[in-house]
């Protein structure tokens, strides 16, 4: 959250100076207000906290939010690319400038804790945690339910964002779900610093508590835009958290169904070829409405992915669907067209018809105004089907999978003949196809304990089988954390 502490102090100062008499100012003369003073002001005026929440949302797409000037350091969507490449579903098929090649696609960062990519993932998500902790503390702390509805909604957003950050930390920094393994420090207060690693179970307990409380706190919250989290976002994140444990299938089904019933509609066959560039798309649950004011250009997700943006994808760092995954998409599946119809020299299974600026001028978009998607309702259909299949409810799994595929395929009759492992395999495949390039393949790989086998359009490790829990697919606690945190002395 760039300048979040400044915003916190300035907004609170203005409000208190306007509302307090001279005696108060004489008793507590200070250029900056304490956290306690901010909390007192926030109890009656939610505007004190709103600026900080807005800052967290901005951090999610800010450049440099991972602490570097790298052109892959641009918030949450940057780590979506990391995950997609580690999963093998996204190929760096042409590399001219070298972004992602050594550290990510050749696994140098995930095997060497001194590499910068470990640091930026770690720093970004813990930065979100700390910013959320500031809000939670100002609103009374972890165990307080604010009196004002507006503050309840702010508390719910902060706890949802904290859980979201911890979830991605658990995914990127541990090989698999092991409740007893000590994997990460846990911080639930701004006063927490340099903590030891705690068990996976302890982190999951905090995430589940945060999200269950958020679902209650956000009940009745009518958000101003899909750029904010609401009850359905909290439910969706909780579904992902529980699904990653592998033993909460019925709860995952209930949560995903609640989101599906939340007023969203699946993207149509036309929309899945429509550019994935508009937050108002009916099937999008959460994202960000980017405008020129956001100041994004080359250093952005679009600047790495889109041929029709002034981008690395246009200039010589092509990102493509894995050739084997592409071959697994039926010819009559509309999603095959997302990667079809090559344009000039750009032929290597790039997502030319999935992610694009509407003008479709090669290298044309310089100032980013196309939006980011963080979460779609299609994910809930697929996660619901997966949980149902794992729970032995094959009929339910088949039905909801067919609901999704009805807008993708001319016939879904083949689904009726699937059961057992064949059904699970099909759901896993459809998840990889439907959500390609959206940062969800890595999560699915780990949940389903899959194996990465790269197709022939990758530049390295082609044909090598890599299991989901292989060290090469998981980041290392960065060198800077080990040097600066006396409670963590080694990787293990």
Short description:
Residues 350-492 form the RagB/SusD domain. This protein has 492 residues and is mainly alpha-helical. Helices cover 45% and strands 7% of the residues.
Descriptive report:
The protein is mostly helical and 492 residues long. It has a domain at 4-52. It is 45% helix and 7% strand. The chain has helices at residues 4-19, 22-27, 35-44, 47-59, 76-87, 101-105, 116-138, 149-172, 200-217, 231-245, 249-260, 301-305, 312-315, 323-327, 377-390, 394-405, 420-434, 441-447, 479-484, and strands at residues 90-95, 182-185, 197-199, 284-288, 317-321, 372-376, 451-453, 465-467. The strands form four sheets. Strands 1-5 form a two-stranded antiparallel sheet. It has a two-stranded antiparallel ribbon with strand order 2-3. Strands 4-6 form a two-stranded antiparallel ribbon. α9 packs antiparallel against α10 and α15 (377-390) runs antiparallel to α16 (394-405). The protein is globular and about 60 Å long. The two termini are 30 Å apart.
Strand content: 5-15%
Overall pLDDT score: 91
Give the helix level as a range of percent: 40-55%
N-C termini distance: 30 Å
The biggest sheet, with number of strands, parallel, antiparallel or mixed sense and barrel status, is: 2 strands, antiparallel
String of helices and strands: HHHHHEHHHEEHHHEHHEHEHHHHEEH
Oligomer: single chain
Pfam families: SusD-like_3, SusD_RagB
Domain RagB/SusD: 350-492
Protein name: RagB/SusD domain-containing protein
Keywords: Cell outer membrane, Membrane, Signal
């Amino acid at each position: 959250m760039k300048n979040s502490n400044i915003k916190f102090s300035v907004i609170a100062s203005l409000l208190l100076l306007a509302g307090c008499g001279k005696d108060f100012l004489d008793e507590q003369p200070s250029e900056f207000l304490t956290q306690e003073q901010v909390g007192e002001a926030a109890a009656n005026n939610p505007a004190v906290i709103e600026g900080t929440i807005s800052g967290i949302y901005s951090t999610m797409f800010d450049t440099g939010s991972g602490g570097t000037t790298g052109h892959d350091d641009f918030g949450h969507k940057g780590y979506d690319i990391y995950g997609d490449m580690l999963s093998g579903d996204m190929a760096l098929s042409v590399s001219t400038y070298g972004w992602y090649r050594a550290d990510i696609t050749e696994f140098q960062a995930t095997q060497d804790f001194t590499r910068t990519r470990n640091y930026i993932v770690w720093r970004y998500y813990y930065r979100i945690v700390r910013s959320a902790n500031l809000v939670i503390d100002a609103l009374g702390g972890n165990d307080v339910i604010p009196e004002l509805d507006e503050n309840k909604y702010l508390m719910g957003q902060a706890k949802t964002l904290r859980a979201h950050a911890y979830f991605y930390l658990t995914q990127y920094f541990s090989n698999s779900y092991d409740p007893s393994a000590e994997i990460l420090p846990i911080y639930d207060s701004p006063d927490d610093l340099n903590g030891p690693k705690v068990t996976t179970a302890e982190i999951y307990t905090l995430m589940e508590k945060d999200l269950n409380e958020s679902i209650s706190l956000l009940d009745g919250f009518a958000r101003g835009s899909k750029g904010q989290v609401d009850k359905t976002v909290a439910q969706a994140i909780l579904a992902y958290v529980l699904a990653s444990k592998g033993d909460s299938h019925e709860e995952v089904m209930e949560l995903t169904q609640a989101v599906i019933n939340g007023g969203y509609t699946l993207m149509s066959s036309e929309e899945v070829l429509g550019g994935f560039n508009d937050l108002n798309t009916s099937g999008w649950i959460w994202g960000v409405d980017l405008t020129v004011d956001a100041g994004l250009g080359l250093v952005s997700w679009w600047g790495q992915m889109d041929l029709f943006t002034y981008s690395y994808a246009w200039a010589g760092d092509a990102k493509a669907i894995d050739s084997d995954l592409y071959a697994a998409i039926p010819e009559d599946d509309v999603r095959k067209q997302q990667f079809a119809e090559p344009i000039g020299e750009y032929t290597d299974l790039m997502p030319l018809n999935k992610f694009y600026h509407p003008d479709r001028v090669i290298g044309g978009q310089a100032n980013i105004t196309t939006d980011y998607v963080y979460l779609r309702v299609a994910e809930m259909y697929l996660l619901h089907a997966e949980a149902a299949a794992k729970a032995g409810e094959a009929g339910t799994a088949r039905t909801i999978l067919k609901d999704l595929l009805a807008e993708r395929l001319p016939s879904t009759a083949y689904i009726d003949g699937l059961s057992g492992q064949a059904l699970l395999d099909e759901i896993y495949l459809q998840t990889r196809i439907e959500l390609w390039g959206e940062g969800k393949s890595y999560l699915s790989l780990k949940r389903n304990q899959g194996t990465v086998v790269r197709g022939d359009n990758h530049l390295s490790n082609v044909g090598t089988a890599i299991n989901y829990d292989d060290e090469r697919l998981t980041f290392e606690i960065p060198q800077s954390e080990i040097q600066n945190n006396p409670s963590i002395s080694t990787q293990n």
